[in-house]
Amino acid sequence: MGNGTSKYNELNKNEHLNRLVSKEIISAEDPFWNTLLSFNDKPPWTKEEWQLLEENSEELVKRFLISNTKTRNFASLIKVLLLRHSELETSVHTENTLFLWQTTNGLFIVRVVAKFMSEKIKEEEMIKQFNDDESSPSLFSSLVSCLVNSLVEIPVRSYTYGLLLEMTLLLITLLSPAILKPGKSAHQMTAWKQLMQGESSVMATPLTCTLLLRFIDQTPAPAELYGQDGGSLVLGFLNILTLGYSGTGKPDPPEGVTKPLADTSLSLLMILVNHLTDSTSCNNPFRTAPF
Distances from the Cα of 37 to the Cαs of 110, 120, 215, in angstroms? Predict the structure, then answer.
């Protein structure tokens, strides 16, 4: 990743990724982030491609989690995305596709790291990786809040489709520890508390309506999302939560995945509605929002 096209088996050699995971402290104001977020790789469509991506990024992510305890570069990346959130409305209105594309790429990087953490480490340690010692509220909670607000506020357009898809998938990933680590109740996990009891709980009805409408609309993905026109690294990462495609390497959308925003919107809604069903432990506003 970084400027130009990179292949998965060359990820460990990528200078931008190696700088990110190094011991160098990179502030949120550093122009490095614009360079890092300007990658334009072809998305992986097959299980084999996904395995290759994860295999070749695993050591980088491990190095990142170790160095991040000192550098807090992951927190810097989150701050970059939170700053970009304040400019999203204008960028959507002016069709600033470069800004939206870079933001989508940044969210994807967060999702790759978050997926690894949700599978490999405890939820408490995962939250620590997101935060620094200065931000209040926590960067993790702020990110969840921004994702929810953006999903509700940003309309579906050809140039926002990939961004909305990535936001939906990232929110699913942040909620996934409740599924991957069933030993801990969902209402005790930070992302769930933010959505059910925290600042984002007031968005339960708007978010529910938005996700329902996106499923009902069944808006097909624009052609550039599949990579024919050099689109950004987005749709293939629907597979990030082990949703496998066929074993062929065709650039065309896999059968049944031509409307991924509708599919992922429904998946997120089902996750929100079908968890925390015991009202004695925590009230789930998403269960009553449709009514």
Answer: 11, 25, 29
Token pair, residue 282, equals: 């925590």
The predicted structure's pLDDT at residue 51:
80
CB 147 within 8 A of CB 170: yes
Query: What is the secondary structure of 155-184 as a DSSP string?
Result: PP-TTTHHHHHHHHHHHHHHHTHHHH-TTS
Type of residue found at 282: C
Q: What angle do CA 125, 277, 202 make, to 5 degrees?
A: 75
> Residue 198: its pLDDT value, please?
86
Could you say which residues of the chain have pLDDT below 50?
A: 2-6, 228-251, 256
251 within 8 A of 257, measured Cβ to Cβ: no
The pTM assigned to this predicted structure is 0.86
The answer, yes or no, to whether the previous bond of 137 is cis (omega within 30 of 0) is: yes
Cα–Cα distance measured from residue 52 to residue 44, given in angstroms and rounded to the nearest whole number: 9
Question: How far is 65 from 83, CA to CA, in rounded Å?
Answer: 23
Q: Using the structure block, give the residue that is written with the tokens 């959130």.
A: 85
Whole-angstrom Cα distance, residue 261 to residue 98? 21
∠ CA(154), CA(217), CA(233), 5° rounding?
Answer: 55
Instruction: State how far the Cα of 119 lies from the Cα of 116, in Å rounded to an integer.
Output: 5
Q: Pseudo-torsion of CA 105, 106, 108, 112, nearest 10°?
A: 140
